[in-house]
């Protein structure tokens, strides 16, 4: 009996265990479903659990491979690319030696522009670009630099010539004419304003026949006025026409502030083409001269240019002109007072100098002068300032 009860209890225990593994209580099932729901919901809202793909956003535009220029743009681009290698950057400095240490110090004086005149390395620039310096460095468009020597200068025209040993890199700009320019035609200036190299500005011929005053106080005539931007550092650079030929040398601006205000001036190439060959050959301009020294205007009360001294063997001496002299009582007697050259009235020393610049050595002129209150005239043949 006990054995039978024991077997029955064993059977019931095994059956209960098997039934327990297949069924669960309602509370357990509910809890299981809730856990599963929470897991599914969390995977949908938590990106760290399962990141969702994000579409790629781009604001970059597709590049149009076609790059075209208008006819005028292409012409200007070609003009600049052709001319730029012949335009140079000039740095002016002075060398100063300390008195006790004997150390040499280089002091910057300024910068400017120039352009190649010929294949021998001659460079045209303004006189005022070099003024005050004794060391000059020329930098080409490819950034190679050369020490430059001064060949000649003409302060009265604000022109000077440097020379460098650049070999085949010395490519001169083509030269045009300035006596046939028209107001309104296009102009192009290449230079180094404020130290920025290889800068192109464009404009037109604004006016012709302007007059500006050189550092020496003499007038420069027939100057070209342009509205192509010319700023400090552009001085000495070329002014080009639409065919890329030099028609002037940029030299000055009219501006109360010192910066570009729409009015720039260029020395006409016709003048440059007369002055530069003399500077290269002689180091100075071969001027027509009469052979006289003039009295300072501070000591002359009447309008005109008074002769102080007449050079021996000069055209003035052969024409019978006389300078200051002393009377028997030691009083200084006035020299001849020149009041006219041909048809031009002369009222000052500057007038006489400027009048003679319109002639060349070998020309004959008529001189009208006042001697002792009486008017006379004589003819003479001008000679050269360079022997």
Describe what this molecule looks like in 3D.
The radius of gyration is 44 Å and the shape is elongated. A hairpin with a 5-residue loop joins strand 16 (325-326) and strand 17 (332-333). Residues 21-45 have low confidence and may be disordered. The protein has three domains: 81-169, Trypsin-like serine proteases (Thrombin, subunit H, Beta Barrel); 186-282, Trypsin-like serine proteases (Thrombin, subunit H, Beta Barrel); 288-384, Roll (Pdz3 Domain). The chain has helices spanning 2-22, 26-45, 71-83, 127-130, 269-282, 315-318, 349-356; strands spanning 87-97, 104-116, 122-125, 135-139, 145-154, 159-163, 186-191, 199-213, 219-226, 238-240, 246-253, 264-268, 288-289, 292-294, 305-310, 325-326, 332-333, 337-341, 344-345, 364-371, 374-381, 383-384. The protein is 22% helix and 34% strand. The chain contains seven helices and 22 strands. With 387 residues, it is α+β, with helices and mostly antiparallel strands. The strands form five sheets. A six-stranded antiparallel β-barrel has the order 1-2-3-6-5-4. It has a six-stranded antiparallel β-barrel with strand order 7-8-9-12-11-10. Strands 14, 15, 18, 19, 20 and 21 form a six-stranded antiparallel sheet that branches.
């Amino acid at each position: 009996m006990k054995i039978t009860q024991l077997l029955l209890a064993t059977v019931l225990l095994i059956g209960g265990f098997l039934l327990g593994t297949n069924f669960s209580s309602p509370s357990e099932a509910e809890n299981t479903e809730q856990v599963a729901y929470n897991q599914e919901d969390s995977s949908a809202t938590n990106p760290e659990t399962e990141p969702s793909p994000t579409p790629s956003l781009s604001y970059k535009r597709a590049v149009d491979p076609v790059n075209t220029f208008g006819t005028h743009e292409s012409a200007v681009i070609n003009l600049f690319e052709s001319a730029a290698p012949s335009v140079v950057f000039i740095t002016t400095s002075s060398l100063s030696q300390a008195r006790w240490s004997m150390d040499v110090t280089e002091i910057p004086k300024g910068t400017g522009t120039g352009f190649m005149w010929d294949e021998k390395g001659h460079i045209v620039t303004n006189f005022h670009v070099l003024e005050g310096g004794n060391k000059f460095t020329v930098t080409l468009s490819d950034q190679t630099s050369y020490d430059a020597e001064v060949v000649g200068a003409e302060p009265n025209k604000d022109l000077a010539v440097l020379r460098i040993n650049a070999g085949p890199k010395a490519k001169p700009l083509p030269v045009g004419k300035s006596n046939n320019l028209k107001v309104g035609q296009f102009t192009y200036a290449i230079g180094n304003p404020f130290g920025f190299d290889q800068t192109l500005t464009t404009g037109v011929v604004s006016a012709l026949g302007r007059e500006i005053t050189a550092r020496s106080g003499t007038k420069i005539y027939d100057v070209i006025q342009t509205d192509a931007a010319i700023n400090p550092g552009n001085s000495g650079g070329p002014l080009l026409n639409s065919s890329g030929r030099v028609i002037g040398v940029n030299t000055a601006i009219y501006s109360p502030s010192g910066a570009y205000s729409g009015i720039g001036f260029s020395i006409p190439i016709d003048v440059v083409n007369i002055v530069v060959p003399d500077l290269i050959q002689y180091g100075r301009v071969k001027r027509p001269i009469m052979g006289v020294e003039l009295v300072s205007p501070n000591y002359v009360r009447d309008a005109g240019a008074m002769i102080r001294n007449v050079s021996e063997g000069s055209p003035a001496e052969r024409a019978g002109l006389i300078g200051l002299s002393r009377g028997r009582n030691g009083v200084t007697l006035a020299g001849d007072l020149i009041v006219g050259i041909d048809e031009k009235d002369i009222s000052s020393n500057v007038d006489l100098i400027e009048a003679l610049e319109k002639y060349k050595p070998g020309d004959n002129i008529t001189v009208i002068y006042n001697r002792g209150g009486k008017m006379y005239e004589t003819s003479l043949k001008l000679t050269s300032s360079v022997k």
